Structure formats: structure tokens, C-alpha cells
Amino acid sequence: MSNRSIIHTDDAPKAIGTYSQAVKVGQTVYLSGQIPLDPESMELVQGDIAVQIRRVFDNLQAVCRAAGGELKDIVKLNIFLTDLGNFATVNGVMATYFQEPYPARAAVEVAGLPKGSEVEMDAVMVVS
Fold it and tell me: What CATH number does residue 30 fall under?
């Protein structure tokens, strides 16, 4: 597929498995799941769930920028939480990163996430 490119930035955590940070096909960018890893130390950030959610959005933002876009270009956001009781906190933090119109979104409670993280997000972005 000749219009496919792999997106990588050192401003977001490196892949911890057999995947790319993002893949761009045409104007669509598929962003892999991000957990609250500090890109330099590759360790989970310390702090409450709001701190962790901010780190995830910062990581997603770094990958968006590496692909030529911004968070506002995300059209679909998937949120995975180990405790759906943190849903209101996600909404509060998300409101500081996004403005209307918001992307389509799903939020799902899961039994576990990589490295014991409490939150993971992946996204689809369209850039012009």
C-alpha cells in the first residue's frame, strides 16, 4: 500500500509491543492506544487518575502532531478504564483538551490494561 506511512515521535512513549505509534493511510491516521507513560522514563506517571488521563492526552497530542494534525482533528476516540467510576474525571479533563464539536467516542470498562495502567485511549484522526 503506497499511501501508507508509519508515524513515530520521541515526544510520545515508544511502542511497547509489536505495533506502531500510528499509521497514516491517505488523510486518515490510526493512533495506537496510549497509556499514561512518561515518554522519557517509559514509566507510568505518578498521581491520581486525572494526572494519568492528562498524560494520555499529552501522548495522543504528540502523536497527532507528528502526523501533521492536532487533537481537534480526532474524529473517533476510544477510552478504556479499569474503573468506569472515573468516567466523570475523563469528561472533566477531556474538556480542557477539546472544544465542541467533540469527536465520536466510546468509553469501556476493562478488567486490565498494560503495565497496570488505569486508563488507555486510542483514536482515529483525519488531517487535511
Answer: 3.30.1330.40
Strand partners, 77: 105, 123
- Are β-strands 104-109 and 28-34 bridged in parallel, bridged antiparallel, or unpaired? unpaired
Task: Mention every residue, 6+ apart, whose C-beta is less than 8 A from residue 113.
Answer: 35, 80, 82, 119, 120
Alpha-helical regions (H) of the chain: 49-66, 87-97
Please state the φ and ψ torsions of residue 71, each to the nearest 5 degrees.
-55, -35
Q: Which three cell numbers stand for residue 50?
A: 486525572
pLDDT tens figures, 74-123: 999 999 999 999 999 999 999 999 999 999 999 999 999 999 999 999 99
Domain with 22, as residue range(s), is 4-126
- Residues with Cβ within 8 Å of 109's Cβ and at least 6 positions away in sequence, in order, are 80, 81, 82, 83, 84
125, three cell numbers? 484522526
Total tally of structural domains belonging to the chain: 1
